[in-house]
Structures are given as structure tokens and as C-alpha cells.
Automatic annotation (TrEMBL), chains A, B:
It comes from the Bacteria. It comes from Phaeobacter italicus. Gene3D superfamilies: 2-keto-3-deoxy-galactonokinase, C-terminal domain, 2-keto-3-deoxy-galactonokinase, substrate binding domain. This is 2-keto-3-deoxy-galactonokinase. The keyword Transferase applies. GO terms for biological process: D-galactonate catabolic process. GO terms for molecular function: 2-dehydro-3-deoxygalactonokinase activity. InterPro entries: DGOK (IPR007729), DGOK_C (IPR042257), DGOK_N (IPR042258). Keywords: Kinase, Transferase.
Length: 322, 322
């Protein structure tokens, strides 16, 4: 059922009583999972009330509004809300200061608890991770990594994971710790160039050309420094040889992902890596890597976010057990 | 005097009778110079009625409106308007098809004459230049190059020129011809990232940090493939070490220009090059090149545009002399 144009509920039939709330509160989107005591998802709520639209005093009313009937009644103890993402940033609800890599993904012990007026809520904001030389930050991805490590068959092994997205991350994991990571503005560059640059008429919003994508990946890897010229060439090819906007779209994606792969070559060349991301974008990275003979395993990011939040809730339960 | 908020006139006192109009009609801006028979500027008019705001039928009324009292009266012959830039593109007033490099900058003989209803106007749209493998186009810069070649003491020499701008161009000139060129989206990337990306709060609209600029140029040249990570680092440095938005601005510029220089290294390394551009941006390229031991000469682009349009008008006069 849809209770609001920008809000969707997927209620699971025969659901039991809410035991806790898992929350991924990002810049533009908020996802809530209403969980029972068996860590089964009772309800899944998505909303566009992300950090960029909220002041600190807006977070609690937003939660109360979206959770509605799921809030405890009577003499119950407060409902724990375990939250990752930008709500814990300095511009968010309350700051959950970054942990410093190398470190394990921060858990409930490092969480910040913002003051709430309503006694039915007990909110925990999980921190992100930073590195200082060179400076880099993640906030939200560390919880996916926590979920990945919780499921990993061999967490002691040194390995590289890539988290494609608006700001894609490449992280090295060792002995259950994030030892280093690097962020690339690849996804945001794609969105800006596709939607707001001179390329907007030669790069479509939909459609695809797999051959052109793979060719563009190879071109960018062969000469990454030429990226600003290769981008303009999308316009010139459209003007001079009628290149379709769908081919333009695939080429733009291939060029930008190709440059990212050129920068991370030491991380994936001759190695097995794991892609933690949404399905479509992860497949593109998988294809791009396959043009270079690299086989990548894909794991669904949303599943891992929920696994990471569940791991944090388990820590909370243990800490509260006498 | 200012006749309109988006229109400025600089009338030169004691001016004589208009003999022709020089026009640089770009995507976002229109510049008109009212010229006398001695090729002296009588009036300079700028307007924001660029191609992006106009349909084909809007161009003639725009000219009539802006030229006003400068239009001939009575039985005079029509006033030639020599025009370079996007007005001659397929989306402009009328298409002036590209000349193919290698070629001299196209002149009056290659110009397209759009039909005009008013007999007081005789409009000539100068073509741009294209290359096909790889595809690239210029429209407007070829007239600056024509002006540069008209002033050049030794046009037979092979040389490289760089035209910094929204879409900066690197062109090789030989025997008065443009033999090859390449376009970089550097300026547009800067504008998008400064104004519309996650970097907008850590990159100021004004201010500068010369040391940070030079350091960023060096970093980008040393590892151009890492550009998408170096961009995100601007945000991380602002978050973690309080890097000022002025330093962020200079670093963003340095990173993007540095990547352009990495791609064009064969063109400038160990050579003398000439920068044709607006003062401030040209100085940045000059500084960036100087970090690599390359000395560049700067020439003002607007002066060259006018010189190129004047050269085309001279050709028109000669063609009309019996």
C-alpha cells in the first residue's frame, strides 16, 4: 500500500510485533526496515526525506510519522532504531564521529545516541570511517562492509571490495578490518554530465549499447589522462556521425568507469574482487572488469546494509543482557 | 550608457559612420562591435541573447534591436555583419558547415548567408572546423586562430596554441593551416563541480590559493587516472582538516587543468606554446605550464576574435572590388 506519494510500504503478511528498526538514512533517501525479534523484516518503508531535506529537529518527527502504527504502545521499552548513513554526519541529526582506518567497521559501542523527546524511540547513529593521508571518508558503506564481513566465509583473508555508487569506494579488508579505502566521484560525474552538461542531448537517460560501453572502458584504460577530451568527443561524434544518445550513454559510463579502473588497477589486476552494490551498476563494473580478464563476484548492497544493521542490533542485545 | 539590464554599450566619443558589424555570437553571449571604414571600433555591445535562448527567427530581430541607431538610413547599401560562433551551428541561425582540418581557418568565401527580411542587413556566418578521426569540432575559435595567423610574424612555423575556455582547445598550426586539434571539457567540468556537485560547499565562487593550485597541477600530472578520487578528496580535506573553500577552488582548478596538461604533454613539453584566451584563465594555464618548466606566451582572445572578423571583412571588400 502507498500511504504517501513519496513513501512506500511493503507490509509482509502475518507479521509479528516490531522488535527494532533498521534504518539507512542517506543524503536523498531514507529506508526503514521494521524487524521482529527473529530479525525478520515485517515492513519496508522508503521515503525521500533524506538528510539534504532535513534540519536536526526534523529527524524525530520524520521517524514518528513514517513508523506510525509500528511504534510501541503502553508500557513497552523503547524501540531501538539502528541507523547508518548521513543522518550521523555533522550536517545530519547528530554527529557520530568517524572511526579511523585501519579499524573494523564501527558497531553499536561507537554509536551516537541523539536526544529524543518521545520515550518510544531509542536511536543509535553508527559512525563512518575516515583515513587522513590521503583524506577520505565513508558513511553508510562501513555498514555494508560490516554485513559483508558478518557473512564472509574467510574474513581473515586480505581482499579488495568495490562499492559502486554515486561516490564509489574501493576498500582493502584484512583480518576483519578496513585497512584502506579510496572514493571516486564516478557516479556523480556521470549524473552531472548526462543531465546538466553540453552532453545532455547526446547522452540519453535510458537505453544501452554494450559493445560501445566495453570499447569506451578500453579506451579510457589505455589513456585515462585524455578523459576530458574523450568526453567532448561524445558530442563531436553525435554531431558529425550521428552517434545515438543510447550509444552516448553507454560510452559516457564506460569512459568514467574505465578511468576509475585505471586508477585502481593494482587493486583488481590478477585478483578476485567483490562488488557490493545495486544490481545494474554492479553488473556494469563486472562487465568493465571482465574486459580486462578480471572476474568479480557480485553481492547485493541492500542485503548487506540490513545484515550490517542486524549485526549492530545483535551487539546491542548482547550489551543489554545482564 | 546601459540601455538594458543585460545589454551594455561602450560608445566611443567622436565616432564616425558604421561601415560593418563584427559579431561573436556564442551559446550564452553575443558581442557586437560597430566598426567604421578604418576598422576602428565605434561601439561595443554585449548581450545575453546567445544561441541557447534563440530560435532561428529570433536572430534578425535581435540584431535590429541591438544595433538600433547604428543601422543605415536612406539609400545606403546594406550593412555587412560578419559573424563567428554558434549562430552558424545547426541549432543556430543557419548552418555554416564545418571546414575539414587540415585547412586554413575558413573565411568569407566559405560563409553562409542567412536570408534576412530587412534590406539594411547583409549577414555572413563563418564556418567552424572539424576533424573526423577522432571526431572533434570548433566553432568560434577558428576565427581567433584566423586573427592570430593574420598577426603572426612567422605563420610558416609549425606551432601549438592552446585556447583555454569552457571547452578548451589545443591546436597545431602549420603553414597557415590548422592541421589538428583536440577539445577538453575542462572549463565545463569546473563549473559543474563547483556549482552543482557535492563539492559546492568546499569550493568557493571567488578567492584563490596559488600554492594549492600549483600543487594540485603537479598531483594531477603525476597521476591523472586518479582524478575522480582526487576530486572527492577536496570534500574529505574540507571535512577532516578544514580546508578552506578558496583553497578548494584553486585545487579543483589545478586538478582539472593538470589532467588536461597530462593529456597534451607531447604538445607543450620542451616547446614554446601560445595561449589564446581571456586574461585570468590564460594566466592559470601559464602558471600551470610554468610548474613544468614550459614558458607560454599569452595573447588576448577578444582582440584576436576581432582581428579574425576584420580579416574576413577585408576578404569581403576585396571580393566586392571590381
Amino acid at each position: 500500500m502507498t500511504a504517501h506519494p513519496n513513501l512506500s510500504h511493503d507490509t509482509i503478511p502475518g507479521a509479528s510485533v516490531p522488535a527494532w528498526i533498521a534504518a539507512d538514512w542517506g543524503t536523498s533517501q531514507l529506508r526503514l526496515w521494521v524487524m521482529d525479534r527473529e530479525d525478520t523484516v515485517i515492513d519496508r518503508i522508503t521515503s525521500d526525506r533524506g538528510m539534504s531535506r532535513l534540519s536536526p529537529q526534523d529527524y524525530e518527527p520524520t521517524l514518528l510519522d513514517l513508523l506510525g502504527d509500528h511504534l510501541p504502545t503502553g508500557e513497552n521499552s523503547p524501540l531501538p532504531v539502528i541507523c547508518c548513513g548521513m543522518a550521523g554526519s555533522r550536517q545530519g541529526w547528530a554527529e557520530a564521529p568517524y572511526a579511523s582506518a585501519p579499524c573494523p567497521p564501527p558497531g553499536i559501542a561507537e554509536a551516537t545516541q541523539p536526544a529524543t523527546k518521545d520515550p518510544r524511540l531509542a536511536v543509535y547513529l553508527l559512525p563512518g570511517i575516515k583515513t587522513t593521508d590521503p583524506a577520505d571518508v565513508m558513511r553508510g558503506e562501513e555498514t555494508q562492509i560490516a554485513g559483508y564481513l558478518a557473512q564472509d566465509r574467510d574474513p581473515a583473508t586480505s581482499q579488495v571490495i568495490c562499492l559502486p555508487g554515486t561516490h564509489s569506494k574501493w576498500a582493502r579488508l584484512e583480518q576483519g578490518e578496513v585497512t584502506s579505502f579510496s572514493t571516486f566521484m564516478t557516479g556523480e560525474l556521470f549524473a552531472l554530465l548526462q543531465g546538466q552538461s553540453v552532453l545532455q542531448h547526446c547522452v540519453s537517460e535510458e537505453g544501452w549499447d554494450e559493445t560501445a560501453f566495453e570499447q569506451a572502458v578500453r579506451e579510457a584504460l589505455a589513456n585515462p589522462a585524455a578523459i576530458a577530451a574523450q568526453l567532448f568527443r561524445l558530442r563531436a561524434d553525435a554531431l558529425l556521425s550521428g552517434q545515438s544518445p543510447e550509444t552516448g550513454r553507454a560510452r559516457l559510463s564506460g569512459l568514467l568507469i574505465g578511468v576509475e579502473l585505471a586508477a585502481t588497477q593494482d587493486d583488481w589486476s590478477g585478483q578476485h574482487i567483490t562488488l557490493l552494490g545495486a544490481d545494474q551498476l554492479s553488473r556494469r563494473y563486472e562487465t568493465a572488469l571482465s574486459t580486462q580478464g578480471c572476474t568479480a563476484r557480485r553481492v547485493d548492497a541492500e542485503t548487506l546494509t540490513l545484515a550490517g544493521l542486524t549485526a549492530a542490533y545483535d551487539q546491542l542485545k548482547k550489551s543489554q543482557t545482564p
